[in-house]
């Protein structure tokens, strides 16, 4: 049994022990049945602790015996090894090219061991994306108007690569909580309602009230991208090309994650903030209306009155909202400015925030969200899974290599009341 399974069973036992201890059935003491069950659970827990200790020792010994990896997740040497992972060497190795990809294969095996999952191709550590990086079909020559022109040249200047225009990626920066290295489905318990207090007359009994518990769940969902690289690029590219390739994959999937975090519709994709039942709402009018200082104040109030946290509160609006806000003026025609309109609160803007209604409903109205972003949870089940197909018919004819990248993740709002939104801002008003 894996450590994760043992820990899950331990948590279940402890919860049942607590339930028995908190609700004695016999004059404030445990009944005979409860006492028996408590003893059984206590014995099982002691045995489980021994199994956990043994399994932990075996797993650690196994890690030391496999390769030359450093065991600790937070070890600086391992961090450096992961950051130095070369995506191009990993791809070239899968293509059968004569490259030294031993380190990449060893790191992939270590990541697979830690996650308990086997890659479809090769695992690429997420650490390689922790710096600004970028690509599309990148080639060494310039096919008539084709993408990737002039990437590999005699006088190569990879640092001057002209990227495509991308949506601003903001969700992590706003303070969303990130859970890495997940294995099974994840349930996160939360307190739904507290015990209540009350005032009573002398010699009267208090009304019994219990805590109520709930949970939010994360289940694996998959995002992916397919692209092409030329064989010549894999063989001859400069170190700058490594950064371009890393950056393109990172930006494509980060954009996918940001988009669903904001407005994901569930089923195949995560449920985003705007699609989460119970978030606060402020309306601009029957048919929408221009953003006002009162409306942004009401948005703050909707979250504050719900007793939401203050750790990472911020506005997030569409770029059209930013433009419209910059045009707001006082009675004397002087611009209010972003600081005034948003009452001194932090704010960010992105083209990923809907300007056409939630999930593109066609309203033509823009959106502004406010909330405590630490109550948005992003979970990752895998590293970046890279699978190379050098035999895909179209790519094969051109001597190129097709690459598929997959990321397994889910997103959930911990407390719906931590967020509120205006979805009917008329930015043309």
What does this molecule look like?
The chain is an alpha+beta fold and 429 residues long. It folds into two domains: 3-65; 120-193 and 212-429, phage-related protein like fold (Alpha-Beta Complex). Helices cover 35% and strands 19% of the residues. It contains twelve helices and 13 strands. It has helices at 3-22, 32-65, 76-83, 87-94, 102-115, 171-174, 231-236, 239-263, 293-304, 319-326, 338-341, 393-398, and strands at 122-124, 177-179, 186-193, 212-218, 221-230, 280-281, 313-317, 347-349, 366-372, 376-380, 384-389, 400-413, 419-425. Strands 1, 2, 5, 10, 11 and 12 form a six-stranded mixed sheet that branches. It has a five-stranded mixed sheet with strand order 6-13-9-7-8. Helix 1 (3-22) runs antiparallel to helix 2 (32-65). The chain is flat. The protein starts with a helix and ends with a strand.
């Amino acid at each position: 049994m894996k450590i994760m399974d043992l820990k899950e069973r331990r948590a279940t036992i402890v919860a049942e022990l607590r339930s028995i201890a908190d609700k004695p059935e016999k004059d404030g003491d445990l009944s005979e049945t409860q006492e028996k069950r408590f003893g059984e659970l206590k014995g099982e827990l002691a045995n489980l602790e021994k199994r956990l200790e043994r399994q932990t020792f075996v797993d650690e010994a196994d890690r030391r015996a496999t390769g030359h990896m450093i065991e600790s997740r937070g070890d600086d040497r391992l961090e450096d090894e992961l950051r130095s992972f070369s995506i191009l060497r990993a791809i070239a190795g899968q293509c059968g090219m004569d490259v030294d990809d031993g380190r990449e294969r060893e790191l992939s095996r270590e990541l697979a061991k830690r996650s308990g999952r086997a890659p479809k191709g090769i695992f690429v550590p997420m650490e390689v994306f922790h710096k600004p990086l970028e690509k599309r079909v990148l080639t060494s020559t310039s096919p008539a108007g084709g993408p990737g022109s002039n990437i590999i040249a005699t006088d190569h200047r990879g640092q001057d690569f002209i990227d495509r225009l991308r949506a601003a990626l903001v969700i992590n920066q706003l303070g969303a909580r990130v859970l890495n290295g997940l294995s099974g489905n994840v349930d996160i318990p939360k307190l739904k309602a507290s015990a209540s207090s009350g005032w009573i007359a002398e010699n009267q009994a208090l009304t019994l009230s219990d805590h109520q518990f709930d949970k939010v769940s994360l289940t694996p969902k998959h995002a992916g991208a397919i692209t092409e690289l030329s064989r010549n690029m894999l063989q001859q590219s400069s170190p700058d090309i490594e950064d371009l390739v890393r950056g393109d994959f990172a930006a494509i999937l980060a954009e996918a994650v940001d988009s669903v975090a904001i407005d994901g519709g569930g089923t195949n994709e995560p449920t985003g903030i705007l699609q989460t039942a119970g978030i606060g709402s402020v309306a601009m009018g029957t048919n929408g209306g221009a953003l006002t200082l009162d409306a942004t104040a009401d948005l703050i109030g909707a979250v504050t009155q719900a007793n939401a946290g203050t750790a990472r509160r911020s506005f997030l609006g569409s770029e059209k909202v930013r433009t419209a806000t910059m045009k707001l003026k006082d009675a004397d025609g002087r611009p209010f400015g972003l600081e005034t309109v948003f009452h001194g609160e932090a704010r960010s803007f992105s083209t990923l925030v809907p300007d056409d209604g939630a999930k593109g409903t066609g309203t033509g109205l823009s959106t502004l969200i406010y909330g405590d972003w630490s109550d948005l949870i992003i979970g990752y089940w895998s590293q970046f899974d890279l699978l190379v197909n050098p035999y895909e018919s179209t790519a094969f004819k051109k001597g190129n290599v097709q690459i598929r990248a997959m990321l397994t993740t889910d997103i959930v709002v911990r407390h719906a009341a931590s967020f509120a939104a205006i979805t009917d801002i008329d930015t043309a008003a």
